[in-house]
Amino acid sequence: MTGTLYLCATPIGNLEDITLRVLRTLKEADLIAAEDTRNSIKLLNHFGIKTRMTSYHEYNKVEKAAWLVEKLKEGMNIALITDAGTPAISDPGEELVRQCVKAHVPVTSLPGASAVITALTVSGLATRRFAFEAFLPYDKKEREAVLEELRDETRTIILYEAPHHLRKTLKECRNVLGNRRMTVCRELTKRYEDKQRGTLDEIIAYYETVEPRGEYVLVIEGRSRQELQVLQQKEWESMPLTDHMELYLEKGMDRKAAMKQVAKDRGVSKRDIYQALLNE
Fold it and tell me: What is the CATH number of domain 116-223?
């Protein structure tokens, strides 16, 4: 019979964050696939777990995933763990899950600690809707493209960042997103957990005098719908009315429907659009 892949959430800081179900699964599994076996052995030793480990990380994720899938097909039960948090979230486990699904191998997730949710819930910002971007791309053009996509994002934005890149990332966010409210979470659930709340300008000023240390989660306020609507109206107003009309006529709208949409874009009545077109 085919084995099962268990996605086991591990502590993001405090070792007591691990669940009883995860501990039992790690003990009973035939094999543990770990992002960094040197790091994970400390966790396993702490809880007296002797299960054999193999490394599964970013640099071997495709080939090793194929090997793990074959072992699962042979009937082996495998537990996947990351260095901290839930596997497959901004993590090479995504590839292993993809290959398992393709091969019809059962996959189940054992929920637990996640830095994304932990940071969001303590941020003091809106939690109902959020956009998780993990680490911004290293490539300059890709990085700029992602930030531009986030410029008009109305959901709360969550990013990961390493200490040596924190100052640069904060300034890039300020340049593109504006002076939003935000919360910077550091070393979540650990002894020296820290949360800095304020505007981007205030947070940037704080880290000019404080050396960034530890792992960071940035939670940034989304743009308000009202502000976004005003900005969009200004963009439409800067476009010549005939060009605005032509935009919808080219999409196949009739003249009446196009005038209605143009009026909506500009925040005016259809009669105003009709009169303006007559006067041109």
Answer: 3.30.950.10
Please give the angle made by the CA atoms of 167, 168 and 170, to the nearest 5 degrees: 65
3-state secondary structure of 3: coil
> For residue 171, what pLDDT is reported?
96
* DSSP state, residue 76: -
CATH 3.90.1150.30 fits 5-113, yes or no: no
Position 62 scores a pLDDT of 96
- pTM higher than 0.85, yes or no? no
Residue type, 38: R
Does residue 26 contact residue 80 with C-beta atoms inside 8 Å? no
Q: Which two tokens stand for residue 77?
A: 């039960």
Alpha-carbon distance 74 to 1, whole Å? 7
The answer to whether residues 30 and 77 touch, using CB atoms and an 8 Å cutoff, is yes
Residue 70: enclosing H or E segment and its boundaries? Answer: helix 61-73
- pLDDT tens for 71-91 read 999 999 999 999 999 999 989
